[in-house]
């Protein structure tokens, strides 16, 4: 009969410990029940700063989805807090009134934010002041993002890693950010004063204000935050405050249950709670040999030891503490820290190289010929060797400065070979060199394959170069290109042209049919559905069999989802032209539905932001305007200048041509979004040179057509495709190019990547010169798609599925059991 294993905590430590137990066959030995305070699966807390900054979607940071718990027979009580432990009855009591017996108990309750007792932080009856936040959970992050809209200035109390990341994240949403730190330099737990000063310069260069030796004495504002007061009498105006002043172990339930608690739950070398039989603690809530750890690497080591012990895989396993070495990306700045920050004895050797104007700092501390500390800011080229020397006591060069530069110290390649098997490579996900080597031995011969198998490099990303070096070394220099790199979608092992040929030959008109016929074992892959749906719509036009579960949320409801779960509605304004009647309707809709923000877009349209999902059909009906397709992987808009009729420089009627293009190709499905522009002269007021397709009027009534331009995160002037004499030729070549792109581009490949990959000469041969004899076929295919077009906002009157516009959050809570 299996023993009953209860885990209190579904965070990174608790879930990782269960993973390690399962990897040792613990699923056959234990029936596992887990409790988590948050109503979600297990996610990577380190990545919340990326979610705040908008570089990662919150769905991307989950480590274990619901299917993982179910597949491993784990009973998960999500959003359920354990209130009491009865050590004598061997039961835990949860806040939902249930009691759960255990044979073995693991406490992995983690930490909570430390909130200083500052007047004004808390309201009399409502907890935190409505403008004050901590930064620890997904819900904290959501609340910060929601509140940031409509506010202008944030103060972050705390100049550690989390505070700097919070400031940078909020800054990316348009808020001014000030970091207020009570210490004399930033990240004083990891850096010495000189390194902290270099980091301060780098952070200030990003536009973040830093106040040091600054103690906050009050958060001001009654109904809303208006500023903070400092002990020196200064007041910093702001309308949002984030507290990132450190963490404290969550030990209340353990202490109330009678366990030995000092700073954390006191444990021995097997992670057993002192004086207890069958009770363990792991992670940030555990205190081992007087030490409590607040970084992730020790958590992974503890999890392995606990799993070895509890499953009997290695009864001699023991945890002896961790030597802390971390690699971080702090507000975009690379930082590595290990051991001592500076010399502590008279005979300690201390080597420092600093270039503050470059934002670079390096130091090492050597004692008795052994590396006992190192700090790197910006340049981490020597971090692999330094971490190995710190952890394993490797011999050091006599000239210590060679530790910091390639002046005779081991090269990166040699360092990789000399790294011990248990050396930690990815701190974010606890991946060792041995894990990477094992993945290569198990058949993963590509870097991306190893990263997928181990999660290495899926966190802050600072270890990716080292991961690459180790994989190449482990594979004996015979790494392979990821076989899936050439697949159009990850779930079907075929390149795009092969996939299209099979789809045509078999007459596959739905996503489920493609999976059934072409996927290995007919297995459906959620990540592939959207790409397949787009491809099938491109190929079959009106004959495509639509399955709504194959669409992304934007395409299911025909609006652009925002961070707070509301939606953005952009009605069509062809060529950026509108009428007083349309403007009145937009204003009436904005008033009626209390739209928080009405904005003129870069595509010369009006965006209504903050509309609830359930209100979308009524908003569309009241507007009485077609969709502007600002949400899909499709033809979006044609930007125009005023052109011939009004501009004294105009050489062609750009407005009329832009409207004609948008009318013909509106909503056209594509592998990625397509933005167009028509400008009436080479002065380029409509920015046609940097669009996916841009048209420029030139002397003699002619038009130049440019393709593959970009003006977003990537900047690229488009390549000249052709110069033609009539608007009709522009429309024909536009349709032909768009169809060639639709049929040959990779999924999510924008034209600015597609055009240089294929080559403008080759594209010109096919699209303009018809060298392959397929021009007529391209024209017919794009015409079929044009003929099949239907304004998607018409679905507002008759929803396709009963729950199409039902209210929902971007992440659904895990069901309680």
| Strand content range | 15-25%
**Rg over CA atoms:** 30 Å
The percent of residues in helical segments reads: 25-40%
Strand order of the largest sheet: 5-2-1-9-21
Mean pLDDT: 89
Termini separation: 23 Å
Number of helices: 25
Biggest sheet: strands, sense, closure? 5 strands, parallel
| Helix-strand makeup class | alpha/beta
- Give the strand tally: 40
Could you provide a short overview of the structure?
This protein has 817 residues and is of the alpha/beta class. It is 30% helix and 21% strand. The two termini are 23 Å apart.
How would you describe the overall organization of this protein?
The protein is globular, with a radius of gyration of 30 Å. With 817 residues, the protein is of the alpha/beta class. α7 (193-205) links the parallel β13 and β14. It contains 25 helices and 40 strands. 30% of the residues lie in helices and 21% in strands. It has a five-stranded parallel beta sheet. Strands 11-18-12-13-14 form a five-stranded parallel beta sheet. A five-stranded antiparallel beta sheet has the order 23-24-27-26-25. 46% of the residues are buried. α12 (433-441) packs across α14 and α21 (654-665) packs parallel to α22 (727-744).
List keywords for this structure.
817 residues; alpha/beta; five-stranded parallel sheet; globular
Secondary structure: elements and pairs:
Elements: E1 3-8, H1 12-23, H2 26-29, E2 30-36, E3 42-43, H3 48-53, E4 62-64, H4 66-71, E5 75-78, E6 82-86, E7 91-94, E8 99-101, E9 104-107, E10 111-113, E11 132-134, H5 138-148, E12 153-157, H6 161-171, E13 176-180, H7 193-205, E14 209-211, E15 216-220, E16 227-230, E17 235-237, E18 240-243, E19 247-249, H8 252-256, E20 265-267, E21 279-281, E22 286-288, H9 296-311, E23 325-330, E24 333-339, E25 349-355, E26 360-367, E27 370-377, H10 383-392, H11 412-418, E28 424-426, E29 431-432, H12 433-441, H13 447-454, H14 464-474, H15 496-506, H16 511-518, H17 526-540, H18 553-557, E30 560-561, E31 567-569, H19 580-592, E32 597-600, E33 606-611, H20 616-623, E34 635-640, H21 654-665, E35 674-679, E36 693-698, E37 702-707, E38 710-711, E39 715-716, E40 719-724, H22 727-744, H23 751-758, H24 760-767, H25 775-787
Parallel strand pairs: 1-2, 1-9, 2-5, 9-21, 11-18, 12-13, 12-18, 13-14, 20-22, 34-35, 35-36
Antiparallel strand pairs: 3-4, 6-7, 7-8, 10-19, 15-16, 16-17, 23-24, 24-27, 25-26, 26-27, 28-29, 30-31, 31-33, 32-33, 36-37, 37-40, 38-39
